[in-house]
Design goal:
alpha+beta, six-stranded antiparallel sheet, five-stranded parallel sheet, 24 strands
């Protein structure tokens, strides 16, 4: 789960005088504009009651999506109410307390570039940091931080509470308020408090009709120890939304004091820790803790095979789809039957807590079998279990019912983000929360919305996939999901997104000035490397040629610094070592190691980056054409399947239309011809 629940919602619709009416399911399609109309909510939106509290934006749920949504809304300038079931579970990490990893780290860097908080909180509360895939190219480098789950939650709560525009309140929302214009205008709590707003963001995590399974035993809950939200799904169905069901799970926690680590392989953090945040004020060097690696055994596999009928999935009493890229241990044993062993990671959950997260070992087996299973792992022969593993089923809404700003198509001013949209993972939830919160505030205040393109960010790719594809399993961000991953690296997330953040009022002048200073320093150094030339007799040239084993030297008499840096094995550190030869003493200030890394990547991969840029420009010119919001697909001569899919998703651009499942190039051609005909008819009209 990535978000705290709000409780259930009952179907309730309000007129301007506070009376109720029956709902008719009008399919309202949102048109995205350069800025939202300043009067985006009608004058009938607010109910004049003496006990009402008015806000610009209400965010329901204070998980990773909810916290980023509330903070983004406040940065834009909106007076924001954050409602949660428990003030003690803000930004809780109920599964693995880790941030980042492949593709997810790029998302966290992008959140930070947009002014979000996940990256800087992870930088302040990490237990261990490692860069994954460091032996490969920069497109797939992935920073991963194991965090202290209690410190992380406390730090995020402090971040939210210290924002003067965010008001936190504990309460269970039971009703959405929708006026006669199909606009969401507030919420009502279980105890009858009405809170009115110009926009509402729902971030319900795994709480909608959440059901926990431990073997055949079940309990209604969104996660261990917290009740589920009952009634919300039925309410949304009554409003005309389509819902479905997904499943995820979390492994057991064991007592660190009962593990024999001498039988496990130690995995230390990187000595030179890197950071998610582009703001150096958030960079803290903290003593790191080790994680450990163990493996499943033949005995592990034997117990699982003998008891598959005891699990919800293989026993047949839980048929929901689970995450493809984070399977349970029983799924691994069944689907990879030829493998004799699987890696299991033992990761600390806190600096002062004995709980160890057994990564890769989530299961739906009964609790009576879980300890026996854990004790088949080397090092855990005498382990004590502190919390059992469990699977959790929950309802979600396929996100093709939202537009690119994460506003729903059926109800104006209502935004969805996080696992309610069918995603899995803290990072994916936080990114959606930031976008939904920023756009809810923009809608409330009539300012510029935050629309991220697929070609410009992983967050844009994530949202584009969600709103154009009919996804029926938990969506996880992967580097392979982006066609433009060489251009969407972690190191340049600020260059891609911080100017957009400034336009959307998501960062302040001080942060933008820091970005401009970094950007200008990098550009000036790249220009200098291109011009600065050294003779072959220079000690730096000799050292660089030796480092690269004289490959391609070809009897050259001189080299530019750019040519030397492009050579294999030569890094910017070599220039720092020979700083007099490299002219570093003459530049206004030495580059930070983060700036030097950016320079090095852009020099070494210049050819690949340029090719990707050409591809992006070509795709933008071809796929960026906007589709009129009023288009009627029934009038277009195309296959019935394509017509139905396009009518269901209602894509906003040709690029989005081409990515809708079941739509062929021939269908897109028919759509383009129809759009051209409409355009000519408009021009001829008097």
């Amino acid at each position: 789960s990535s978000s705290s629940s709000s409780g259930g919602f009952r179907r309730r619709l309000f007129l301007s005088d506070g009376s109720r009416r029956r709902k008719t399911n009008n399919n309202i399609t949102t048109t995205l504009k350069a800025s939202y109309p300043s009067s985006s909510v009608s004058s009938s939106s607010f109910v004049d009651t003496s006990d009402a509290e008015n806000y610009d934006v209400i965010v329901v749920g204070a998980g990773h999506a909810g916290c980023e949504a509330a903070l983004a809304s406040a940065r834009v300038g909106a007076r924001t109410l954050l409602l949660t079931l428990s003030l003690d579970k803000i930004a809780w990490q109920p599964c693995n307390p880790a941030i980042g990893g492949p593709a997810k780290s790029q998302v966290v860097h992008e959140i930070d570039a947009l002014g979000g908080s996940m990256g800087k909180i992870a930088d302040k509360t990490y237990l261990q940091k490692r860069v994954l895939n460091s032996s490969r190219g920069p497109a797939v480098w992935a920073l991963r931080a194991q965090t202290d789950k209690w410190e992380y939650s406390n730090a995020m709560r402090e971040e939210v509470e210290s924002n003067e525009r965010v008001f936190i309140r504990e309460g269970m929302v039971t009703e959405l308020m929708v006026n006669s214009n199909d606009e969401c205008v507030g919420v009502e709590t279980h105890f009858g408090m009405q809170f009115h707003s110009k926009a509402v963001v729902l971030t319900t995590g795994t709480f909608m009709n959440g059901k926990i399974w431990v073997g055949r035993k079940t309990i209604d809950a969104g996660r261990a120890g917290e009740g589920s939200s009952v009634g919300l799904t039925e309410h949304l169905i009554n409003l005309g939304f389509e819902t479905d069901r997904l499943k995820t799970g979390t492994p057991a926690r064991v007592d660190a004091r009962t593990i024999d680590y001498s039988k496990c392989e130690e995995q230390k953090g990187d000595e030179d820790a890197k950071f998610f945040s582009f703001d150096p004020r958030n960079h803290l060097v903290i003593p790191q803790m080790s994680c450990y690696l163990t493996r499943t055994t033949l005995k592990t596999h034997e117990i699982i095979r003998q008891n598959l009928h005891e699990t919800p999935t293989y026993g047949g009493w839980a048929s929901s789809k689970g995450p493809r890229y984070c399977p349970s241990i029983e799924d691994k044993i069944v689907k990879f039957a030829e493998k004799e062993s699987h890696q299991i990671f033992l990761e600390p959950e806190g600096r002062k807590a004995p709980e160890i997260y057994v990564q890769g070992f989530s299961t739906g087996l009964p609790e009576r079998l879980q300890l026996e299973l854990l004790r088949t792992l080397p090092g855990l022969e005498n382990a004590t279990m502190m919390r059992p593993a469990y699977a959790v089923e929950y309802d979600y809404l396929p996100a093709h019912q939202c537009t690119r700003d994460l506003q729903t198509k059926k109800i104006s001013n209502l935004f969805f983000s996080g696992q309610i949209n069918g995603t899995t993972g803290y990072e994916e939830a936080a990114g959606q929360g930031l976008v939904a919160g920023a756009n809810a505030a923009a809608k409330a205040l009539g300012t510029k919305p935050l629309i991220l393109e697929r070609e410009g960010s992983y967050l844009g790719t994530l949202i584009d996939d969600l709103v154009t594809k009919d996804l029926r399993e938990p969506y996880r961000m992967l580097t392979s999901r982006s066609e433009y991953r060489l251009a969407l690296r972690s190191d340049n997330a600020d260059a891609r997104l911080t100017p957009i953040a400034k336009e959307c009022n998501l960062i302040d002048d001080e942060r933008f000035k820091m970005f401009e200073d970094k950007r200008d320093t990098i550009e000036n150094e790249l220009a200098r490397l291109k011009k600065f030339r050294l003779k072959e007799s220079s000690p730096l040239v000799a050292a660089a040629l030796e480092q690269s084993k004289n490959l391609g030297a070809g009897g050259k008499q001189s080299f530019t610094l750019e040519e030397l840096l492009r050579r294999p094995g030569v890094t910017y550190d070599k220039f720092v070592e020979y700083k007099r030869d490299a002219g570093i003493d003459e530049i206004p200030r030495p580059l930070t190691k983060w700036e030097a890394e950016c320079v090095e990547i852009r020099v070494k991969f210049a050819g690949f980056i340029q090719r990707q840029k050409v591809q992006i420009d070509r795709d933008l010119s071809k796929h960026g054409k906007e589709i009129p919001s009023e288009i009627d697909y029934k009038d277009i001569p195309m296959r019935l399947e394509a017509r139905e899919k396009l009518e269901k998703v209602r894509p906003s651009t040709i690029g989005q239309a081409s990515r809708v499942g079941g739509v062929t190039p021939a269908d897109i051609n028919s759509l383009l011809i129809h759009m051209e005909v409409l355009h000519r008819e408009k021009e001829k009209a008097p």
